[in-house]
User: Fold this.
Amino acid sequence: MALNLAHQIGSLAGTQIAAEVTTGEQSSSATANVSGVRKVPLANLRCNAPGEALSPPILTPPLTPRSAENRPAMMSPSLSAACQAFGTLSPLETAEESSASVAWKEGGKKEEKKGVPVYVMMPLDSVTNGNTVNRKKALNASLHALKSAGVEGIMIDVWWGLVEREAPGAYNWGGYAELLEMAKKHGLKVQAVMSFHQCGGNVGDSCTIPLPKWVTGEIEKDPDLAYTDQWGRRNYEYLSLGCDTLPVLKGRTPVQCYADFMRAFRDNFKHLLGDTIVEIQVGMGPAGELRYPSYPEANGTWKFPGIGAFQCYDKYMLSSLKAAAEAAGKPEWGSTGPTDAGHYNNWPEDTPFFKKEGGGWNTPYGEFFLTWYSQMLLEHGARILSSATSIFDGAGVKISVKVAGIHWHYGTRSHAPELTAGYYNTRYRDGYLPIAQMLARHGAVFNFTCIEMRDHEQPQDALCAPEKLVKQVTLATGAAQVPLAGENALPRYDEYAHEQILRASSLNVDGSAVDREMCAFTYLRMNPSLFHPDNWRRFVAFVKKMNEGKGARRCWEEVEREAEQFVHVTQPFIQEAAVALMH
Assistant:
């Protein structure tokens, strides 16, 4: 971030949504029935304050997890520099103190203390196209502020399109080496994302970072390396998983390229692994998520809450479909995907395939196709995870995978948007348990989004149900005994969102008092609005509550009063930093 944060990082914004609408259908699942799970609020989450009236926040429509639209910034230079002052308030932890905090172990287990450590996502363009740290002075100041607030660490996108941009095997770690050293200096842990996808084309992508030049060159020669829909539209966010094991990238397969990249990262930063770098999140699709690019926002192709479209029409995917159909004794099913599944912006009942009564999704053909489509995605994830776990074996880091929180039309029978994304989740089938089981086999963490959302905040005519979805995923990860981590899908600075995150992270969805919490929470994203005094005060209180864990009995207002004092004490430093900035 530039020292004047307001002119460098766009905050996330959207339009206000309508109030809750009464709907008919409710969601359920065969193996993880989430509709009947009763709510268990955290104990003493709020104090009784007679006469207190809190206004609900202005809400925004649900978008993809790394999404954000730029809006005009509203912060003064003094607030931008405030984090410089926060860094002077509290000395950094020593290495011994840091190691005495949450100990990150393989499999996501925590030792020494309870609670959920909070990480903060860095700006997407923290490293420039010239492989240097972007807005270094302000970024350094912001890291001071985050550390002083009790944040455990930061999440950094390590872009394939920057590091291996020019030629195969030619890695330039320039800006990342400096950025990681900055994190180490401030005593912050790092979640490093192996970002094998393109940045740009989704809401909130504040910069454009395409795939490596030599990769896009191969796509130009063979367009079927890109995901393709039934109308021939190519998606260049991420290579089609249909060519995972084919030597289509100058003699290497895509999976080999991903493995070589991770191996080079390991070798270059081995001195930081297990100490500063504590987690490797492996990108497996658009926005770094294990899914198909079924709802692309570039050029207005898809808009919320459309059902999306299947992405199986490149020649490599069709070849696999043909082979699967022949193996099933139904060769007539192998020539194409569903042709009656509507368009990106249709709703389920608009289409013969997804409609609730007599829909193709609930026929033998539909079951065959959806099983193949989702299995291809699972195998893709397993191939990359197998490489990642082998490469980082013994390095003292966790491996994690992000799964998208597709909560719109969740209340319908077919769950169409989840199906087009590759999650075979319907009213009669749990699509998240197989994902959790696959991650468990590889010792990986299940990272899930939309943790901050509440059902009644979302457009009910689209039968959105993020809370029910999060509960289903919580039950699935519990059954598979895989650690669960979370992220917020949209930037939220209000107590309502913070309290929802606290509830979700406690994992008390079935009413039991098991000693289980999320293994981490990553906050989206560092931007100017986070450092606004009111937002900062609430954020500091939120981090403290997360660190205390679900067994804490202190109420929210008590923690906020402490945060208020913290912010008040730093005001002189804010003014001093502002004067220094102007000169």
Summary: Confidence is low (pLDDT under 50) at residues 1-111, 572-583. The longest strand covers residues 153-159. The CA atoms of residues 63 and 304 lie 7 Å apart. The longest helix spans residues 364-391.
